[in-house]
Amino acid sequence: MKRARILYAMVRADFLERVRRYSFLLTLGFAVYLGYAVYSGQVTLRLADYRGVNNSAWIGSVVGLVATVWLSLVGFYVVKNAIQRDRETRVGQILATTPMSKGFYTLAKAISNFAVLAVMVLILAVAAVVIQLTQGGALDLFALMGPILIFGLTALAVTAAIAVLFESLPVLRGGVGNIAYFFLWIFLLVMSANKLDHGPFREPAAGAMPNLTDLTGIGTVMGQMQAQVRLLDPVYQGGSSFGLGNITPTTKFFVWRGLEWTAGILLGRIFWLGVAVGIALLASLFFDRFDPASGFWLKAKKSGAEAAEDRGNAGSDPVEAQGSAVQLTPLVRRAWQSRFAALVMAEFRLMARGQAWWWYLVAAGLVIASLASPLAAARSGVIAAAWIWPTLIWSQMGTREAQFSTRSLIFSAPKIFPRQLLAVWSAGVLVAVTIGSGLGLHLLIAGDWQGLGAWLAGAMFIPALAMALGVLTESRKPFEAIYTIWWYVGPLHHLRGMDFMGTTAESSTAMGYLVAGLALVAVASLWRKVRLAAA
After folding, report:
1. pLDDT reported for residue 432
2. Residue 474 in 3-state DSSP?
3. What sign does the CA torsion over 337, 341, 343, 349 have?
4. Which residues are CB-neighbours of 348 under 8 A, at least 6 positions away?
5. What pLDDT score does 295 carry?
6. What is the distance between the alpha carbons of residues 124 and 140, in angstroms, rounded to a whole number?
7. Which residue from 379, 381, 402 is spatially nearest to 453, judged by alpha carbons?
8. 481-506: buried (b, 16+ CB within 10 Å) or exposed (e) per residue?
9. More confident of the two residues 518 and 203
10. pLDDT, tens digit, for every residue of 106-154?
11. Nearest Cα to 386, choosing from 365, 372, 415, 403?
12. What whole-number distance in Å separates Cα of residue 210 and Cα of residue 226?
């Protein structure tokens, strides 16, 4: 009983601390937007030419899938900061002195994450009621709320636990984990939908195992919908889609009766709740209890500041050890040197330094592949791989001053604004041009000026997006999440309007992204100026 009270107190304190942040208001705003997207028809669920009429069962199923699919993606990035926040505020060091076990701590953090995500689900549930009342018709609360609460809450419990696991693993607690989770999310979606369109839905036989691969509920909900449409229209051969955006309107409607809640479905939800608890406890095996030296499988590298502190604690003095005083080399500026060019190169070196040798080897391989591949393949495929590779380099743009607390040092220099931001952006463009140089040379040799313009617009837009998000949020995570998702939806699928890399002539909108890039640079500069004036 005492442990339960302690667990409740930890979860409650962590939850209240989060809901008092401005970022939580943005989270709630996103949930409200998803509800509006369902109401306005921007979220579409269809089975070939069919869609359901707007009764409680249909609205509840659509909103439930919105909760499991989209909130499981966005929610991860919202809550993946629980352990890191305890590190930054030094609360973790206090907790480490208590007899609290690592498993107890990680489980408490997973429950706290779940509480935050559950608020988003409840907002969607309220939105579903509003949608039903505005659409008219009888209100069936169980048919409306069942898919939202049962599927949504169980799926987000797993998301909350995965966020704790990623924060506990040194390799995944940073930008690598932010990118890796997106591909894990894709895998979980595919796993959930892998049984669709393979014959009519059948009730599981007595004693049969439930579908344990359907985390999001897509296979269950849309599988039963397909079975009902087949009964109405024997010509229907399957096919279904669920996503955001306006698509060709459906021409046929059917009355969706709602889910048939079987024992197998409910056992599957209980199974995933158990998985969430298991993941949270698994995280405790890798959790370092706020002592990097205690990790049993990987020891974190010490930063320069930590290494200097260790040397100081050991009583060693680097200056005295050398036996001579430190002498500063006088700075001599030659007439032909440009201060701005030197600033750009300094920012470029800061971005490129610290990578492992194999990182540069892969980057060189991507440049060679862009040159060696046929032009169409290099433009439509290789460049997408080349420009996802330096994501973690771009994500530091605009955030280093906050991360390393160097604002007062950097911004005390004369005439630093806006030169410093322009230098950061120019260095980011230089990174894009360097890693994408294979395609640039290929397009130049082929005389493909349209493709070259699209390549240049992409090289300018990506760093502008990174810098603007970094300056506005002072965090690397927004760019890492938004850019990875955008890269997958736009360039990788050659979607016109979203393809900022111009991977095909048909999907390229080079001028729009060139203007957007310059606008983002202006926004970042204006915001930085406002912040400096208010400081």
Report:
1. 94
2. coil
3. negative
4. 427, 430, 431
5. 53
6. 16
7. 379
8. bebbebbbebbbebeeebbbbbbbee
9. 518
10. 999 999 999 999 999 999 999 999 888 887 778 889 999 999 999 999 9
11. 365
12. 19
Q: What angle do helix axes 175-193 and 477-489 make, rounded to 10 degrees?
A: 40
Task: Look at residue 522 and give its three-state secondary structure.
Answer: helix
Phi, psi of 413 (to 5 degrees): -70, 145
Q: Please tell me the distance from the alpha carbon of residue 500 to that of residue 466, in angstroms, as a whole number.
A: 13
Domain residue spans in the chain?
2-294, 339-534
Among the residue ranges 18-32, 55-69, 261-275, 299-313, the one predicted with the least confidence is 299-313
- Whole-model pTM over 0.70: yes
Q: Which amino acid is at 420?
A: Q
Burial of 89 (0-12, 13-18, 19+ CB in 10 A): exposed
Q: Which of 113, 57, 104, 50 is nearest to 85 (CA)?
A: 113
The two structure tokens encoding residue 204: 């599981």
* AA identity, residue 283: A
State the pLDDT confidence band at 312, using cuts at 50, 70 and 90.
very low
Is residue 474 within 8 A of residue 367, CB to CB? The reply is: no
